[in-house]
Amino acid sequence: MHANWDDVRLFLSVAREGGLSAAGKILRLDPATLGRRMTRLEDTTGTALFVKSPQGYALTEAGTQLLARAEAAETAMRAATASFPTASESLTGQIRIGAPDGCANYVLPQVCARLSARHPDLDIQIVALPRVFNLSRREADLAIGVSAPTAGRLTVQKITDYKLHLAAAEDYLQASATIRMPQDLKSHKIVGYIPDMIFDRELDYLAHIGVARVPLASNSVSVQLNLLRHGGGVGVVHDFALPAAPNLVRILTDKISLTRAFYMIRHEADRKNTKLTQLADDLSAGLRQEVAHLEATLT
Question: What is d(CA 135, CA 152) in angstroms, rounded to the nearest whole number?
Answer without folding.
Answer: 9
